[in-house]
Amino acid sequence: MVKVAVVEGDGIGREVVPVARDILTAVRPDIEFFDVEVGYGRWERTGSACGEETVADLRSADAILFGAITTPPDPGYRSVLVQIRRELDLYANVRPIRGEGVDVVIVRENTEGLYSGIEWTEPDRACTVRVVSRRGSERIARYACTLAKSRRHLTVGNKANVLKSDCLFVEACTAEAARAGVPCTFCYIDALCLDLLMHPDRYDVIVTTNIFGDILSDAAAYLVGGLGMLPSANIGKRAALFEPVHGSAPDIAGKNIANPVAAIRSGAMLLDHLGDPVSAAAVEEAVDRVLSAGIRTPDLGGTAGTREFGAAVLREVGRG
Amino acid sequence: MVKVAVVEGDGIGREVVPVARDILTAVRPDIEFFDVEVGYGRWERTGSACGEETVADLRSADAILFGAITTPPDPGYRSVLVQIRRELDLYANVRPIRGEGVDVVIVRENTEGLYSGIEWTEPDRACTVRVVSRRGSERIARYACTLAKSRRHLTVGNKANVLKSDCLFVEACTAEAARAGVPCTFCYIDALCLDLLMHPDRYDVIVTTNIFGDILSDAAAYLVGGLGMLPSANIGKRAALFEPVHGSAPDIAGKNIANPVAAIRSGAMLLDHLGDPVSAAAVEEAVDRVLSAGIRTPDLGGTAGTREFGAAVLREVGRG
Ligand SMILES: CC(C)[C@H](C(=O)O)[C@@H](O)C(=O)O
Ligand SMILES: CC(C)[C@H](C(=O)O)[C@@H](O)C(=O)O
């Protein structure tokens, strides 16, 4: 029996996750789903966005299917997603960018960097410490190199010309790539954002630190139709969480117009992680066939609703 | 007599700056240029990339025309450009992005944030402190609001959902926009990178912190033909430095193929700063006419060399 925790979260998370869940159920009726409430809605109601028992619940699952969570820019409120990534030590954030002429995987360090949580406020300034650890750099470099080894090559996004903390990151990646025998090049993150847009065919696996990966993946979404398309996996040694790269998008929530592709593809990554590449591929292909048939949500210029798109994928999965 | 310091720097800086300088000379024969040697080449020869006398020389000028400088990712070598920005307190990095359907100005805080220079290495990790000061935030917010006031509206790029240091920045921008009566919205920097690419018409003036502005402007270059097109101004209370956004590009240096548009447009911004908007416009228009005539460097799909493009602009300026 496979146990999958489901966090719908806030906003469109509550619309796209049920769609993804139905599709997973169709291909893998043996999965036992259980809901975990986390997020801003819960915080408003109970004063806590995510408690310790919640983290324990998430830990007990074989995998987590996650929607999106609203974080108000309130100095007293810490991002729950960031908290979960750290508590479950989900160190590798893997973001495949696939589309017409684009096949890139961004591997983002997911537990430190500017997301260290080491912050303080003085009377006249506020500070955040960017932490690049040797262990953190080595393990993400190793993850990226293992992936690149089965693909083509590695690019290391960094800003070592300004941030001396990135010298350590570059060093770790250099060593790991040499060890793994992976061809490896380096690119400053600003230049990389642009060059990835201009020449996506030049890139294969990209590894970078936390916030650079955050920004780079959103920019890369431009190549494949926007954030509605991008899935992600947050991988740790003992836990794994799958979520669309997009946020909770309160402005379009509750209208049945959110694109569920990112969430469905995240579900496919979850299946793959559970050791079922066949079902994962079946879901991926069903999505591709529906898109090819011209069924699309409004963000892609179509007229299908979130639920209608989901129903179309469900039908295709049944056929596949 | 107007005195302009010229730093060609390294790589293609040595090719594009002379072109810009010739054009400035043509429209303003009264400018007295003087060369200042700064950069990697100097460091290799003398062991110092930029001395104190050099900074004093730069300070004595009415404006600085700057090329680009190579920074090796060597932990012992600090970026000279970052050093100059800080020593001359050039707090506003202004980057206009103009082209077909795009008219945006990115105003980037230029003296603190992740570029604080507060860094240290421990045995197992390296740290950089991101510093957001009230004074730093207020003055850049004021600069951006003054600009937005004469234009349309302001967007504040931030990551306050994760970085509590950005709450101070958001607060300062909110207060300044209210005071100036400027319509102001907020956008997380990752989402902003993407949305600016997808809907450039929704943006006018964007203000953000140091490294976010660095990355955002490179991504935005995608909208207007790449980095070869983007000029910038680094503005302080008592000094101003004008430079293309691109770097020294050692891979294409010395081949007479670098696009000098960014450097020439930086020259136009310099003229405007010196209180000569008429000459600035003359240079801008000459560049536009040459581009419209189909004369382009290879990065834009053309066959013109750096010098040939410059010569064409010189002819147009003469005609203007
Ligand atoms: C919501 C936010 C905390 C998150 C991040 O910054 O990592 C998001 O932007 C992402 O990319 O997953
Ligand atoms: C060369 C580098 C120090 C610089 C920066 O990071 O500011 C450059 O990328 C820029 O955008 O001006």
From TrEMBL, chains A, B:
The keyword Cell inner membrane does not apply. GO terms for biological process: isocitrate metabolic process; tricarboxylic acid cycle. It holds the Pfam family Iso_dh. One of its GO terms (molecular function) is isocitrate dehydrogenase (NAD+) activity. Residues 3-313 form the Isopropylmalate dehydrogenase-like domain. Its EC number is 1.1.1.41. Coiled coil: none annotated. SUPFAM superfamilies: Isocitrate/Isopropylmalate dehydrogenase-like (SSF53659). PANTHER family: DECARBOXYLATING DEHYDROGENASES-ISOCITRATE, ISOPROPYLMALATE, TARTRATE, ISOCITRATE DEHYDROGENASE [NAD] SUBUNIT ALPHA, MITOCHONDRIAL. Belongs to the isocitrate and isopropylmalate dehydrogenases family. This is Isocitrate dehydrogenase. The lineage of its organism: Archaea, Methanobacteriati, Methanobacteriota, Stenosarchaea group, Methanomicrobia.
